[in-house]
Design brief:
mainly beta, Leucine-rich repeat, LRR (right-handed beta-alpha superhelix), 16 strands, globular, leucine-rich repeat, LRR_dom_sf, transmembrane helix, repeat
């Protein structure tokens, strides 16, 4: 899709049996606002760092492909981004701390990858974020206090990771009253025989180490 001046503003490629990798030239669309490439398992390789040149981008959706490698830290330059959906790939490495620069984000979905390392404290800058889904990765470490700054959260999935600590900053914060869904590995609530890794009084769903999930306090 192009604007009236002929600039490309929208690219959507779904279920096209694409093969190969994303070219670095993807960054050559200065007015691109929406990039959606999904359900192309033959699309492999890493996300090129040149994606940071798409400074008009508001919606980034690269899902259900075969992408590998890490999320480039240069995504922190996409300051107009409102949604980042990179789920159901084979991405590895850390969640870049530069995501904390994207204060206009409404939705971040990174589930079902192999992302590792800690939950970046910089994500606490995302005070407008309503949807956060990091389910089914290999994140580890303590949940940072800064998560409590994310006061607009409504739907959260942090389960099926190795995170530890407490969700008290969320449960005692402004977001708690408006949470609709909150999944975490707080299994001791719903599965007393299986110690949970996370303390979470406001979670709606608690999961155990085997991925079984039940309503909190069931």
């Amino acid at each position: 899709e192009c604007d009236r001046d002929g600039w490309v503003t929208w690219i959507e490629l779904a279920s096209n049996n694409m093969i190969g990798s994303l070219p670095k030239e993807i960054g050559l669309f200065p007015r691109l606002q929406t990039l959606k490439i999904r359900n192309n398992p033959g699309l492999v390789g890493s996300i090129p760092s040149t994606i940071a040149q798409l400074t008009s981008l508001t919606d980034l959706e690269l899902v259900e492909n075969g992408l590998t490698g890490s999320i480039p830290s240069t995504v922190g330059n996409l300051v107009g981004l409102e949604s980042m959906h990179l789920h159901s790939n084979d991405l590895t490495g850390l969640i870049p701390s530069t995501l904390g620069n994207l204060i206009g984000l409404d939705s971040v979905i990174l589930r079902r990858n192999r992302l590792s390392g800690p939950f970046p404290s910089e994500l606490g800058n995302l005070m407008n974020l309503r949807v956060l889904n990091l389910e089914s990765n290999v994140l580890t470490g303590q949940i940072p206090q800064e998560i409590g700054n994310m006061e607009s959260l409504r739907n959260v999935w942090l389960n099926d990771n190795g995170l530890t600590g407490t969700m008290a900053p969320v449960c005692d914060g402004k977001a708690a009253a408006d949470l609709s869904l909150f999944y975490s590995d707080c299994g001791e609530k719903s599965f007393p025989e299986t110690p949970g890794r996370v303390e979470c009084s406001c979670c709606t769903i608690c999961c155990d180490v085997d991925g079984n999930c039940l309503p909190n306090n069931a």
